[in-house]
Structures are given as C-alpha cells and as structure tokens.
C-alpha cells in the first residue's frame, strides 16, 4: 500500500466550487420550472378566461340568477 496511489483531496476552495456548481444548477432548474408553468398553466388559463369573457353577458347572467331567487334585495 503506497501512499502515492491516492491523490491528495482537494480541501481549499471546495465549498466555493460546490456552491458554484449547485447555484448554476438551481438557477437552470428554476428557469425550467418557470417556463414550464408559464406555458403549461398560465397561458392556457389566460386563453380560457379570454374565451369565457368574449361571449359573456353579465346582464343575462344577472337576470338568470335573479329569476332563480339567489338575490334577496333584487326581485
């Protein structure tokens, strides 16, 4: 067993090197998740709201709710 078979472990700057690696990885993962959320959740939600309010008639909806007896003050 010679001691030259194993190299010296890196001790100086080890934390900085590992932090740099993990911070870059965390930034990349967070950007990926943000892009996924934007295109998989936010954009379809905006489109669904736009489609709903394109044909929405609030007075017609109010009259239907009033006839159903939901409102107590509007007869």
Describe the structure.
The chain is mainly alpha-helical. The protein has a single domain, classed as Mitochondrial cytochrome c oxidase subunit VIc/VIIs (Cytochrome C Oxidase, Chain I). It contains 2 helices and no strands. The longest helix is centred in the middle third of the chain and has 41 residues, at 14-54. The mean pLDDT is 91. It is found in: Mitochondrion inner membrane. One of its GO terms (biological process) is mitochondrial electron transport, cytochrome c to oxygen. Pathway: Energy metabolism; oxidative phosphorylation.
Strand-residue proportion: under 5%
Biggest β-sheet description: none
Q: What oligomeric arrangement do these chains adopt?
A: single chain
Query: Which structural class best describes the helix and strand composition?
Result: mainly alpha
Question: Count the helices. How many?
Answer: 2
What is the name of the CATH class? Few Secondary Structures
Per CATH, the architecture is Irregular
Per the principal axes of the C-alpha atoms, what is the gross shape?
A: rod-shaped
Q: For this structure, what is the CATH homologous superfamily?
A: Mitochondrial cytochrome c oxidase subunit VIc/VIIs
Order of helices and strands: HH
Stretches where pLDDT falls below 50 for ≥5 residues?
Answer: none
Q: Overall mean pLDDT score? A: 91
What is the gyration radius calculated from CA atoms? 30 Å
Termini separation comes to 96 Å
Helix percent reads: 55-70%
Task: From the 3D structure, determine the CATH topology.
Answer: Cytochrome C Oxidase, Chain I
Number of DSSP E strands: 0
The domain count comes to 1
Transmembrane segments: 21-40
GO biological process, one term: mitochondrial electron transport, cytochrome c to oxygen
Organism: Rhinolophus ferrumequinum
Pfam families: COX6C
């Amino acid at each position: 067993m010679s001691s030259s078979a194993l190299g010296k472990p890196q001790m100086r700057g080890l934390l900085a090197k590992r932090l740099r690696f993990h911070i870059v990885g965390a930034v990349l993962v967070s950007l990926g998740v943000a892009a996924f959320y934007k295109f998989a959740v936010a954009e379809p939600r905006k489109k669904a709201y736009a489609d709903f309010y394109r044909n929405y008639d609030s007075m017609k909806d109010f009259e239907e709710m009033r006839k159903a007896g939901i409102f107590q003050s509007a007869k």
